[in-house]
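Posted in: Structural Biology > Protein-Ligand Complexes

Title: Requesting predicted complex, S-adenosylmethionine in pocket

I'd be grateful if someone could produce the 3D structure tokens for the following input. Sequence and ligand are given below.
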Amino acid sequence: MNPNKVLWEKGDFTRIAESMRESGEALVGTLGIRKGLKILDLGCGDGTTAIPAAKLGADVLGVDIARNLVEAGNRRAQKLGLKNLRFQEGDAADLAGLPNNSFDMVVSIFGAMFAPKPFEVAKEIVRVTRPGGRIVMGNWIPNDPTFVAQILKISAAYAPPPAEGFISPMTWGIEANVIERFASAGVPRANVSFVRDTYMFNFPGMPSAFVDAFRRYYGPTIDAFEAAEKNDRADDLKSELDALFERQSTNLRKGITSIPATFMRVKVAVE
Ligand SMILES: C[S@@+](CC[C@H](N)C(=O)[O-])C[C@H]1O[C@@H](n2cnc3c(N)ncnc32)[C@H](O)[C@@H]1O
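-- Reply #1 --
Done. Output follows.
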């Protein structure tokens, strides 16, 4: 079994994605999406960005490695009556079945960054984008002091050491790595640009309940708690995460825990 698939089919990422809908829609609103544009949303989850893109009239294909998330996405699309949106299973590092030059835009928000084999991922994304098309990635940034980067950092400290040859997904948040990966796929440096942006997580409940949701539903945190339990350190992990969520919470709206997270927005022009 593919461990990457196992990780994301664990728990139920839709429960975390529900806290990300507003920022997903806002981001999509900045991409100049219009009716008829062919868009691939890679590592799409249950459609946080694919659904708003389809609502703007684009023809959207969502591809994700997790079967449960693909099914959840298709259920959401059906419920909304979106005929121009389809979700299917696939691996960002091997988009077999998707022809060359077939999309005007490839979007991957905290998605393809989690696929192992980053050079293959860059090659596949570029291959399926048509000349003149665009690639937009949202990637978490290693050692960034804000929310998700810190969750992943804290979680990693409790997990067993990664296998030899493991390349951290967080390296997608380092400009030099991104440039190198797209260069190896034939994209010149001048066509890759970066800007820092913020995603807002909005959760209906207290910060500690939001930690509990990550513990039950978010693959990397589930793994961290499993590893911590084996070493009798689950309480330490819970306390560290409680403190992080509490500290970073802005609570602008009553009863809602709102936490901002900085990410790297990568734009690539394909020639
Ligand atoms: C943090 S979630 C983000 C989901 C979605 N883009 C969103 O913004 O809600 C990461 C997603 O990447 C998917 N993923 C991880 N590895 C993948 C791979 N190799 N190929 C395709 N999708 C992958 C996971 O299944 C999961 O849905």
